[in-house]
């Protein structure tokens, strides 16, 4: 895999691990970092040996937001015509394999938005989430106003976005922003363990489960159920469906071949 300057990539078993590594700026998401992240995610998505991806930062910061110093002098026409925070930031949404955000420390602004673009968020006890853009004279620009409300509801999303306050890990768990909170020392192990568990299943079913759940954010209930049914039916064309159900009937562990 290509060498990167602001992220680290490695595999742990069948899990691809991307670590944001720009400590001097608390992993502020500058253009170079987002370019590298997009490349790493696409590389893992194309790697048949990888079944799930974990995205993490440091103990101090998952990411403290878009790079304020990089964007502070940009003009309206520049950000408009460049579609700033456009496709490059949304690469994570195009990844077929599950992406687990393992969040310790600050996940603010674009950092919180990046975590919310992932499929699952696991938080360390010291995690702090927030959309503080209002304090900079702007608003969230990478989906925060749309995804936060879907996770935590209108009142809390308004509270976070209009006051810019931070939410600690316990509040994030209570509010359904994260699936679970773990001690900071075991964050990565827990995330990788979850990734391994997912990667052991039949990858076509994993990809379709991800697609079906994510579609619930975009579609009406009727359309979403219809899509789910179609995806469900299509899995009966896989060898792994035969293997999974035969293994159950024969009281043995299935040997999925991702076929
Ligand atoms: N952009 C650029 N640099 C950043 C940064 C950011 N988002 N966040 C932190 N840094 C830099 C700081 O400037 C500082 O650099 P120097 O040492 O060169 O001065 C370094 O990281 C360490 O930061 P602090 O000294 O501020 O560390 P702290 O522990 O005192 O505070 C913090 C931590 C509360 C996270 C504070 O850094 C902070 O408030 N950061 C900005 C958070 C923010 O506003 N994020 C939203 C950005 S806008 C956005 O994301 C738009 C969008 O929707 C996409």
TrEMBL record:
E.C. designation(s): 4.2.1.17
Keywords, in A-Z order: Lyase
Highest taxon, organism lineage: Bacteria
An annotated Gene Ontology molecular function: enoyl-CoA hydratase activity
PROSITE patterns with a match to the protein in the record: ENOYL_COA_HYDRATASE (PS00166)
A Pfam family matched in the record: ECH_1
PANTHER family reported for this sequence: ENOYL-COA HYDRATASE, MITOCHONDRIAL, ENOYL-COA HYDRATASE-RELATED
Similarity comment: Belongs to the enoyl-CoA hydratase/isomerase family.
Alphabetical list of NCBIfam families matching this protein: PRK05862.1
Protein name: Enoyl-CoA hydratase
